[in-house]
Design goal:
binds fe (ii) ion, alpha/beta, 6 helices, nine-stranded mixed β-sheet
Length: 279
């Protein structure tokens, strides 16, 4: 049942909340090459090549929702059936960017996930630096419950886990496409948004992002490095609200392989050395 819906939905857009949506939108316009415009309900919409974000008014560093687009109506219906069969509670979609077949579900820690069909594609052909929106991660105080929800209720596939020396799970990665993770979860003292990520594809494209960011005097706050799970190269920057933004490349394509278990240590998080340990 799990494999039936994996590869059925990709991260299409996210809504970030901010006490100053205009300032945050202006930052994403500069840093992430996304054209920012006022949108409905006092929000802003930021659009770039294969990357779309809504910015609503609210508390800083809060996720409004993460919205996953399905490739077609059949795939969307499959996820809906899966959620209903698993006893998941469907809610109305808060996304204005999906059509009326969309629905939302809430994970055990209150993160709102939307599944639907995009009214317009996430992006159009562009000469901007490549970086489709690719994954989102959460802090979690109960990873076992979160893993169970993502795998059993949503039908995402489990890619990797990280465990500490006592056997406690400290990180969990699940996927809804062939890419190693669409959602990552880190054991932290508090649940909530951890970071979101854009997939540049190739190392040289991370170079182009770093050149672009350097020209804007936007500092890299972590990396370059390579994650163990997912094998992706990365740099991180931080937006003015304090949200961490990842630009990644070479993320592993997972087809058929067993779930791997990694040791909880800095070199798992960054095989090149310095790591931002969540716990
Ligand atoms: Fe990430």
């Amino acid at each position: 049942m799990t494999a039936a819906v994996a590869a059925a939905a990709y991260l299409h857009h996210v809504e970030l909340m901010s006490a100053d949506p205009a300032r945050l939108a202006a930052y994403y316009e500069r840093a992430m090459q996304m054209k920012a415009e006022p949108f409905d309900g006092g929000r802003f919409i930021c659009r770039g090549a294969d990357r779309t974000m809504l910015i609503g008014r609210g508390a800083d560093k809060q996720l409004g929702f993460a919205a996953f687009a399905c490739r077609d109506a059949e795939a969307l219906a499959g996820i809906r059936r899966h959620v209903e069969a698993a006893g998941g509670k469907l809610e109305a979609s808060p996304s204005p960017l999906f059509d009326d077949r969309a629905f939302a579900v809430r994970d055990p820690e209150g993160n709102v996930l939307v599944f639907g069909l995009a009214k317009v594609p996430a992006g159009a052909p562009s000469r901007d630096i490549r970086g489709p929106l690719q994954h989102i991660t959460f802090g979690s105080t109960d990873l076992n419950k979160m893993e169970k929800f993502y795998v059993e209720t949503l039908g995402f596939a489990l890619s990797d886990r990280v465990r500490d020396e006592t056997g406690r799970m400290t990180t969990c990665f699940v996927r809804s496409t062939h890419e190693h993770h669409s959602v990552g979860m880190f054991l932290k003292p508090e649940a909530g948004l951890d970071h979101h990520s854009y997939e540049a594809g190739e190392w040289t494209t991370i170079r182009d992002w770093a050149d672009h960011l350097g020209a804007l005097h936007i500092p890299i706050v972590w990396g370059p490095g390579r994650h163990g799970p997912g094998n992706n190269l990365f740099i991180f920057i931080k937006d003015p609200d304090g949200n961490m933004i990842e630009i990644s490349a070479e993320i592993e394509y997972v087809r058929d392989r067993p779930v791997q278990e990694w040791k909880h240590e800095p070199y798992t998080l960054n095989s090149w050395g310095p790591a931002i340990m969540r716990i």
